[in-house]
Please model this.
Amino acid sequence: MKNLYACTLLVMSVTVACGDGPSLKEARQRWLHGNYEEARSLYEVLVKDANQRAPATVGLSRTLQSQGDYDKALEVVDVALGDHPASADLHAGRAEILYLRGRWTDALGAAEKALALKAGHFLGRWIRGQVARDRADFKRADVEFRWFVRTYTERSDKDDDIKDPQELLLVGLAGAENARWHNLSDQFRIILNDVYGDALKNDKDFWPAEYQAGMLLLEKYNRGEALDAFDKALVINPNAAEALVGKGIAALQKYEVKDAERFAERALAINPNLPEALRLRADVEFRWFVRTYTERSDKDDDIKDHQELLLVGLAGAENARWHNRKSAASLRPLRSISRRRSSYAPCCRGPTTASASSTCAWDERKKPWTSSRRPSRPTNSTSVSPTA
Model:
């Protein structure tokens, strides 16, 4: 197998030298279809061409990110920047990886370099907005996210519509943040039908648009259409770990804990460092506490140990925060601990209880958000199962 791989690289290197080698489009298509190793081999040949090194390096980095090798992804970008320091795309790509690794200061610095080279760089703007949001600088973040909405509208008014699927995806993500913060509920339909719809229209293989559409629908209590979107993403790319996580989250909402755990493990088998998959697996563990507490209570076998009750309460609080839950299953552990506060002081120290009660005040009695779902890639496949 190694000899075959080496021969493949040799043949592609020769064809590139003859001007008849792989193209960036071909390599990107392999990546979108989940053929990460094949895409990587094509990009590794393309980076040898000085004229294509910057975009090929960005593509190569993304294939590595798709399988969780963030250190290597950062390394290849850093090496390319040594030869192409004036590439805004490389600086923005570096910012994206650094942000994923939690290195916000470094990510912001890289984003600023990208924006100094190209003021309207979408990814640079998106990273800058995310860092501001996560640092609770909401005024600055709001300015950044509104820039996307304004740019999208202005270019549309000038008949200069945004065509790039990746840029449209960022417009949708930023627009959703803007809509949440300013209670612009009608904007969600525009994002779903127009922005993500156009991304898929311009590139039928761009599964991230289906994935983000699914996450938005799931957020708006439309589980059925969300699952449909995740399945469509997985038809395009069976190795889309993010879409598997989306299906896991949907399963967990119905307390299908085993299915959620299987989806998390499948996603982690593809990308062992995917934050969303790691969080889903953690969420499954937190749900175990809530389920165990409820089951034992229903059997008149209440948990009595104070330390165990504390852990149930902490896990229940995490579960409530993550899902804005006001259900009895989420609140029972907190109420039980509250009744025992006088006998076990650690239960009422710190911000945990206050934060949980504040979160549980969210009104969850909402009807599923529906939409006139935009046409997208048709599929005759059945829903992807947790063990597929």
User: Anything to note?
Assistant: Residues 4-18, 326-330, 341-367 have pLDDT under 50 and may be disordered. The radius of gyration is 23 Å. Residues 257-388 form one domain. The chain is about 70% helix and 0% strand.
